[in-house]
UniProtKB/TrEMBL annotation:
Tree of life domain: Bacteria
PANTHER family with a match to the protein in the record: ARYLSULFATASE FAMILY MEMBER, BLL2667 PROTEIN
Keyword presence, Hydrolase: yes
Domain Sulfatase N-terminal: start-end pairs: 74-490
Gene name as annotated: atsA_26
SUPFAM superfamilies, sorted: Alkaline phosphatase-like
Full protein name: Arylsulfatase
EC class: hydrolase
Family: Belongs to the sulfatase family.
MF terms in GO: arylsulfatase activity; metal ion binding
Protein source organism: Polystyrenella longa
Pfam families in the record: Sulfatase
Length: 790
């Protein structure tokens, strides 16, 4: 039986549908609490009918600051110079003119009591997160991490960066230069990428991932892709990394404003300069010829006088004396003085060139009409100047990291080419001490201001009305993030990506903008690095020195009972007058305070080791537990993701196809001109080339003709002992026939390279031998390459 049903009118269905949708989807109001980022999606406020004709659309909002109620927030340019001392830049009394830093200071404020952590990646983690370096797992560089919470090398998801926060409010974020906040084992093509620039809040990255890089042959990365640098800069001049990142920063800022002028930009310009290698076009170092012939003692005296005259230091500040372990300039033999003067000329040119490139970025902002509403924070150093060049300076910094003595003859032979791509040079420790005038000590020494006090200038014409004034409130790099957030007008979130956030430990510096005499709001700050300990509290500073920074390892010491010094910083700007014996009760109070802060911020356990902490067994590994690695052609792997072959028995096997006419090219190489090894074919010879950080070379070369067709080449490396520096025997085979044998008389113990990769089938970066030209791609067919730990 068919039952007749009355048709339901579409208008009624539509009405009911709309009612249900409105009740369950569109009518409730979800709280948009700003402490939760990213924000929950807003409920749909329109109307959904059966067709678009009886529905109401809602246009999605642009992700720009105005959408979130922010009125004309500033663009932000953060400049961070690497390994730069307090007395280096002319803006803070140094002997190297820095007109761009002058410009920022004269257009705003210069801060004379601003502090860092004494080492690069810890300072950078603190800068980005607004938390102390141990609080965010960065108590030391990641390559020396030990697996304890304060030393993991991993910035936790509970410490979102200020860049991540600003991105949620519509900022366009780009990072140029150095990213030393990626854990060593996460630097390969497989990531993970949580601590790469994109994971730390930046939409675009162009620079290098690691501690330092060759300025002429940098380990370039664009976003997550490894690149080889171009031959020239955009203006056609010979390539230099600092110029290149300035070119890219200028282009990105201009493009960003052209496409979306509603979005302010955040540009983080973190140069690899003035970290070693000190490499710069010769015309820049030649500007300083003869200017440092007076030596480091004279430089200190002249810089101290300028600092007093400029008001950078108070009239009663004392010039601290030279440590007994550093030689007086007049005691240095004439030949060495000639080398050391040239090393300083190169470093000065490097500094001036870097400031000039920053100036190009600032000029571009002005040309875009954005200078008045751009907050510029120019930090002259992530720590003090570096004494890692040792007492005699270095032609190749890799000798320092591997505790291998560099002969004087190497330095003398390099005199005319210092600063070029032939060297990975670093000046002597005494020049670093001079760059840190008027303070004691250098980079690595967190106990004293020579390692932690850096010049900083800040300008923002729309928001900072002062021009050329000095601010002497005590501040720390963790204070930059809350300063930026207050200026923009947003709070740090309580949750980010669903993760509860650690409190921001920094203090905003905005209160200093209009009041030079404002009372300090940072009253306590601990310092610790490599066992060096310090605590600032209400105008007093207690300092405990673990060891001399230009020594690879220091004698054993009880880190819980260090010989502490005491300084009244309000009366003693440069830590020149130790009051430990005068005020033992005050010293005891501060030492107890240090350990309380150490417990609070994950500083424990204290650890005074240096190169020993570079042991890879301390950290996660992509290669641990594996003994066989088979790689495809044209692969690049950073050292942290490559098998560790140092003083280990191993066999390299390359299965290749060689045409009748023969073939040339690289089979496998790690490192290059400044340390490493290569296994390759050149001019009919199978070659194993071992470069002991430029000090010695060991060549094993085949005799007789090599076969063609399907061929298996092997290099068997048999170490005399599984310990650092151990010699080894290397035997070469072609189709199981021995074609050569030789000795590696001394091997690299700690680190093959700081920035180059393990390359399969070609050679990037710098060559292991000057007998061929890069990229020296294997001209036959490389089918597979296998490394087997025997």
């Amino acid at each position: 039986m068919v039952i007749a049903r009355k048709p339901v009118r579409l208008s009624l269905v539509s009405a009911l549908f709309t009612l249900v949708f409105t009740v369950f989807v569109g009518s409730s109001s979800v709280s948009q609490a700003e402490e939760l980022l990213p924000r929950p999606e807003k409920p749909f406020k329109g109307k959904i009918g059966l067709t678009y004709k009886d529905s109401t659309a809602v246009k999605p909002e642009l992700k720009i600051p105005a959408t979130f109620g922010l009125e004309n927030p500033p663009n932000i340019l953060i400049v961070l110079i690497d390994d730069c001392g307090y007395g280096q830049m002319g803006t803070f009394g140094g002997g190297i003119p820095t007109p761009t830093l002058d410009r920022i200071a004269n257009n705003g404020l210069r801060y004379t009591r601003f502090h860092t952590t004494a080492l690069c990646s810890p300072t950078r983690a603190a800068l980005l997160t607004g938390r102390n370096h141990h609080s965010v797992g960065s108590g030391v560089i990641g390559e020396a991490g030990t697996g304890f919470p304060g030393y993991s090398g991993i910035i936790p998801s509970s410490a979102a960066t200020f860049a991540e926060v600003l991105r949620e409010y519509g900022y366009a974020n780009a990072w140029f230069g150095k990213n030393h906040n990626v854990p060593d084992w996460e630097t390969s093509l497989v990531g993970p990428f949580d601590r790469w620039a994109s994971g730390l809040g930046f939409d675009y990255f162009y620079g290098f991932v690691g501690g330092d890089t060759d300025q002429f042959h940098p380990a370039l990365v664009e976003n997550k892709k490894r690149l080889e640098p171009p031959k020239t800069n955009e203006d056609g001049s010979p390539y230099h990394f600092t110029t290149d990142i300035a070119d890219h920063a200028i282009r990105m800022m201009r493009a960003s404003k052209a496409v979306a002028p509603q979005r302010p930009f955040l540009t983080y310009f973190a140069t690899g300069a003035t970290h070693a290698p000190h490499q710069v076009p010769e015309e820049w170092s030649d500007k300083f010829k003869g200017k440092f012939d007076g030596g480091w003692d004279k430089y200190r005296e002249e810089t101290y006088a300028r600092q007093q005259k400029m008001g950078i230091i108070p009239p009663n500040a004392k010039l601290t004396p030279r440590p007994d372990s550093l030689p007086a300039w007049d005691s240095v033999p004439e030949k060495e003085r000639q080398v050391y003067s040239r090393m300083m000329e190169v470093f000065a040119g490097f500094t001036a060139h870097t400031d000039h490139q920053v100036g190009r970025v600032v000029d571009a902002i002005e040309e875009m009409g954005e200078l008045d509403n751009t907050l510029i924070i120019y930090m002259a150093g992530d720590n003090g100047a570096s004494a890692e060049g040792g007492l005699e300076g270095l032609v190749n910094e890799m000798t320092f990291f591997n505790a291998i003595e560099e002969p004087l003859e190497m330095k003398l032979d390099a005199l005319d080419t210092l600063g070029s791509d032939k060297h990975y040079n670093h000046f002597p420790a005494a020049w670093a001490w001079a760059m840190d005038t008027p303070f004691q000590w250098t980079k690595q020494i967190a106990s004293h201001f020579g390692g932690t006090r850096n010049g900083m200038a800040m300008s923002w014409p729309n928001g900072i009305k002062a021009r050329g004034e000095i601010r002497d409130q005590f501040h720390h790099v963790i204070d930059i993030a809350p300063t930026i957030l207050e200026i923009v007008g947003v709070d740090a979130p309580d949750q980010f990506n669903g993760v509860a956030q650690k409190p921001v430990e920094g203090v905003s510096m905005v209160y200093t903008f209009d009041d030079a005499n404002a009372e300090d709001r940072r009253t306590t700050q601990y310092f610790e690095m490599l066992g060096n300990q310090g605590i600032y509290h209400n105008g007093w500073m207690a300092s405990a020195l673990r060891g001399i920074p230009w020594e690879s390892e220091s004698p054993p010491i009880d880190l819980l009972n260090m010989p502490w010094e005491l300084y009244n910083i309000e009366e003693d700007f440069s830590q020149a007058n130790d009051l430990a014996k005068v005020h033992p009760e005050k010293l005891e109070e501060l030492v107890k305070n240090f350990f309380a802060e150490a417990a609070r911020y994950q500083v424990l356990p204290l650890d005074g080791r240096k190169t020993e902490r570079l042991n890879v067994d301390n950290r996660p590994s992509l290669t641990a537990g594996r003994d066989t690695f088979t790689y495809p052609n044209l692969l690049r792997l950073p050292e942290g993701a490559a098998p560790d072959l140092k003083h280990k028995d191993h066999t390299i096997t390359a299965k290749v196809t060689i045409p009748e006419g023969g073939a040339n090219g690289m089979l496998l190489t790690q490192g290059g001109r400044f340390g490493g090894y290569g296994f390759y074919v050149l001019d009919g010879k199978l070659i194993y080339n071992y470069n002991l950080v430029g000090v010695e070379r060991y060549l094993v070369t085949s005799t007789g003709d090599l076969p063609t067709g399907e061929v298996t080449f092997q290099a068997k490396y048999v170490t005399d002992a599984d310990k650092p520096f151990a010699p080894a025997t290397v035997t070469l085979f072609a189709n199981d026939k021995q074609v050569a044998e030789g000795r590696v008389k001394k091997s690299i113990p700690n680190r093959v390279t700081l920035d180059e990769t393990l390359d399969i089938g070609f050679d990037t970066g710098t060559p292991i031998s000057d007998e061929y030209e890069l990229p020296f791609r294997f001209s036959g067919k490389l089918n597979t390459l296998t490394i087997k730990l025997d």
